[in-house]
Amino acid sequence: MRILVTGGAGFIGSHLCDRLLADGHHVVCLDNFFTGRRENIEHLLHDQRFELIRHDVVEPLFIDVDQIYNLACPASPPHYQYNPVKTVKSNVMGTINMLVLAKRVRARILQASTSEVYGDPTVHPQTESYWGNVNPIGPRSCYDEGKRVAETLMMDYHRQDRVDIRIARIFNTYGTRMLEGDGRVVSNFVVQALRGQELTIYGSGEQSRSFCYVDDLVEGLVRLMATEGRYEPVNLGNPVEFTIKELAERVSRLVGGDVRTVYRPLPQDDPTQRQPDITRARQWLGWEPGIQLEEGLTRTIAWFRERVGRRGGPGIGITASSPATS
Ligand code: NAD
Ligand code: UDP
After folding, report:
1. What pLDDT digit, counting tens, does each position of 14-49 carry?
2. Atom 3 of ligand 2, residue of closest alpha carbon
3. pLDDT at position 226, please?
4. Please, which pLDDT band fits residue 13 given cuts at 50, 70 and 90?
5. Which residue's CA is minimally distant from atom 12 of ligand 2?
6. What is the β-pairing status of strands 67-70 and 173-174?
7. Which end of the chain is less crowded, N or C, counting CB atoms within 10 A of the terminal residue's CB?
8. Quick check: 100 pLDDT over 70?
9. What residue ranges line ligand 2, CB within 6 angstroms?
10. How far is CA 63 from CA 97, 99, 175, 212, 233, in A?
11. Is the pLDDT of residue 310 over 60?
12. Is 143 a catalytic site residue?
């Protein structure tokens, strides 16, 4: 098949491109390189079945493809808050443009949605039937509400025009190829520990997240795309929940040495808890994560160890320790 991956030079997108090529497909990788890097896909450029397009999903696109994975959107709070209006546009106009393309060429389209559609959840763990608790006017809203509208658009194009849609609600995913200056907690802690800096815990560190290794996530995305007749959202994430303090302890132990922590203000609207109920993914896709935190962190630390300090610092003027907002 000929498959379009928007955001294909980013963290998850580049791993997805690898996987789709390995499965024998032709991959068209589209990216505006806001948070994506050429380095993530450089090893694919020689492949006859790989095409790279520098393009912004906010602009229409017409190419012939069989499937579309729509991942184009910055995912880390400092990145999506850097230009919030652009984040909304990427999610709304970008998703419309990709749905128009899917409709026109009759391609199946998968939208990368997020656990952020549940906001600061009052239902725990989160099932797909939960409608969420999202602040519509806060600093995270450009992303949370943008993704909620993207889901609405997917369902409406499906109901109105019979577009063949899939929606993945992705929970915190980490692994190799995250940006050093990404701002998300796993890459922050790993980079800080490797540099001998203090690990920045925002708030009390009692808030929780459930961390999924990128290889598991990619497997879930590919399986979801391949299912027939399932149009409702599916949670994809690792259901094992950790507090941020526990994560800091894990990273400290695995990196070794004298790792200290420092407490910083909690960013506004930071969700207090997050854990996916993956019953639907188990039943519909036969999927569950196989790589637990210890193993995933070990791989991630090994990858960053090779890179930290070797190249320039963090991207777009955001340091590894800056809270998203405070
Ligand atoms: P990322 O920032 O590494 O990747 C996003 C990619 O999209 C980058 O390559 C970026 O340059 C590109 N991009 C951004 N805006 C674009 C635009 N307007 N036009 C074209 N390209 C654009 O983030 P990621 O973690 O790989 O996330 C990928 C997708 O998965 C995103 O849609 C994100 O919302 C979703 N997601 C990720 C997580 C996670 O924990 N990593 C969780 C939930 C959802
Ligand atoms: N966090 C932290 N230190 C950091 C970066 C993040 O304590 O250096 C916290 C953040 O406040 C949040 C959690 O870790 O409670 C996960 O943050 P991340 O930005 O990775 O993901 P999200 O909040 O979008 O789930």
Report:
1. 999 999 999 999 999 999 999 999 999 999 999 999
2. 201
3. 98
4. very high
5. 270
6. unpaired
7. C
8. yes
9. 76-77, 172, 184-185, 188, 200-202, 207, 209, 244, 267, 270
10. 12, 13, 31, 33, 26
11. no
12. yes
Contacts of 271 (CB under 8 A, 6+ apart): 116, 118, 119, 120, 121, 207
> Comparing 54 with 315, which gets the higher pLDDT?
54
114: phi then psi, degrees, rounded to nearest 5 = -150, 155
Q: Please say whether the beta carbons of 4 and 28 come within 8 A.
A: yes
Question: What separation in Å is there between the alpha carbon of 58 and the centre of ligand 1?
Answer: 14
CB 314 near ligand 1, within 6 Å: no
Collect contacts of 29-34 with beta carbons under 8 A, ≥24 apart: 29/5, 29/53, 30/4, 30/5, 30/6, 30/55, 30/57, 30/61, 30/72, 31/6, 31/7, 31/55, 31/72, 32/56, 32/57, 32/72, 33/9, 34/74, 34/79
| 143, 157, 174, 213: the active-site residue | 143
| CA nearest neighbour of 83 among 142, 160, 157 | 142
Q: How confident is the model at residue 257 (pLDDT cuts 50, 70, 90)?
A: confident
Distance 76 CA to ligand 2 centre (A): 9
Q: Give, using CA atoms, the residue closest to atom 18 of ligand 2.
A: 184
Q: Which of 272, 322, 271, 320 is nearest to 138 (CA)?
A: 271
Which protein residue has the closest C-alpha to ligand 2 atom 4? 185
